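Morning!

This is the sequence you dropped in the shared folder:
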Amino acid sequence: MSIRARLFLLLLSLSVLPILALRLSGIHTLELLAEDLVDRSAHLLLLNARNHLLFLVEDHAHVLQRERQLLEQTLRLQAAEVEKTLAAKGLAASDAKNAPLRDAYQLAAAGAEGLFWDQATVLDNGFVEFSSDAAGMPRRFNPRLAPWYQAAMEGKAPVWTAPAVDPATRRIGLTISMPVRDPAGTVMGATAIMARIDTSAMGRSHTQAISPNLKSYMVHIAGQSDETQGLRIIGQEEHQFHDGGAGGRRMGMMGLVAPQWLTPDDPKVLTEILNNLLEGKSDVLEARRAGQDLMWAFAPSGMQGTALVFTAPVADVQADAAAATTYIKTRVGEQIAATWLVVGAALVVVAATGWLVARSMTRPVLNLCRAAERVGQGDFTVQVVPEGGRELAELGSIFNAMTLHMEDRSRLRQSLALAQEVQSSLLPQGMPVLPGLDMAGISRYCDETGGDYFDAITDAHGQPGRVALLLGDVSGHGIDAALLMTTARAFLRMRVHQPGSPGQVVSEVNDFLAADTSGTGRFMTLFYLEFDAPPTSVHEASASGKPPLLPDEPSYSTGPLRWVRAGHDPAMRYCAATGTIEELGGQGIPLGALEHYGYSEYSGPPLSPGDLLLIGSDGLWESRAPDGEMFGKERVRDILLQNAHTPAEAVMQALLAALDAFLAEHPADDDVTLMVIKATA
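The structure's back. Tokens below.
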């Protein structure tokens, strides 16, 4: 066997065996990780679904509890109004048959519309008056025999009674009643409210995440003749279509002539649900009903003897976990297959490389060394003649292609330098010179180009003296960030010169950017500030609505500050009068993150002489020293306090000098942009 073949086999064995061993170990580890991830993901998704279901049923139960409190308060007011009406007419219990109570009903019901079917008052002399039309009331119906009437005559506070049919409206409801007294305090009858037992069901946006087949019920849990039958349904979800064909869901009424029951297949589960509800507890259980596995979420409703129950198929609740399991296994299988392809490709490359080394020859290698030396001196036109066999000839061709790529890289660096020059020209070459204001600004990029941007625009919106200050920070840095910054700059400068408020400017520019950045993950934070510069004359002061200058007043303050925060850090304001620093905060998301987002506008007092304003990017306070320490906003505040008496340029340079000393020759990780505005006398 030739030495070339022996060398080739040696190189091949030294390269291939470690790769195979590492790859097999990696695949085994990946499979174990996938199994653990599947188990954890399924457990967390199921736990989240259970908690979500419990939250929904408890939330709806809380709504019903608030409605119960409102109904009880309404009944108390109704009783008072009924007693007042009867007393005002000077009627005793014996001659109150013609007393008009409709006005009393309407006054008591104000603010509680939609929570009950009917209102009624029954006196012991036989007087009966319902708020609804009672023409269809059964002839032999005696309301004094109704459970709610008898319960009210025995108590003082509002009393709830079990669901029953309202004889006037023919609807099912819970009845709440209390006694009615004459001026002497004698009980002369009872007044009642027939409360609805339906409630608006959850919208699709709330239930779709759990199950499209989720059902909700209101059940009666007190006074059941046979608890083994289950939970008696007195209201359940039904589908309803509104105008335009949009589907909605609500809790509908069910009659009591043929009772319906909500019963788990396992009697032990029914007992557990009943015990929990009677103790006022809510929970989520898994049980079968009619052969179907269901998740049961239940909570007391707060209305006498009733509860809310939500059911959803277990398969729907577990759908996300099953989908996540399938996805993880599929992706892991694809990753393993791709890994074997990579290993196969690596083996091919290793074999080719070993064969090239085995057939190496000194003369072609020497030519390559000389050519490489010329390339190192900057001569990218050098080419070598491929020779010395197929392998070295291929190496020579690769070398020739490499020199072309290096030439392209050199041109790219020149292009980057040009891009840096162009971007620098887009930034203000100097801050505007305005009476009563001292302004300074700078951007320092950590790469050739960056995504930070600042601008100072005078006569904003065509209004003389109006100043707009802008400072933005594009996510990331480099060419892509610079391009997005350039686009945002064009939109902002165009929109600032048109009429509008700061909120309108930022909202419309966000719409422009979002149309281009949707799905890219790119966005730009922005701090936008507007104010009127101090007037320079009595005429200008009068035109701006300010009082005229007095002889001993050297200057005015600025106009009130108005700003918008689009996901950017708040500006810092130094108040010369108090010697304190406050932040110009507010709410807002970055530009380009969400289309049609309305930005809020905030305002603050004007800048008085000596006041200082710092607007900066997070590249300043989030810079880290070699040991990992962050520069921090507290250090920035200290520097502002120490240099507040100096000009704006000096304050800015003090911040940059402190940052350079903090980094200690360590390169910056992010762009740094600062604007300092100081009100002067």
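Headline: DSSP finds 14 helices and 22 strands in the chain.

More detail when I'm at my desk.
O.
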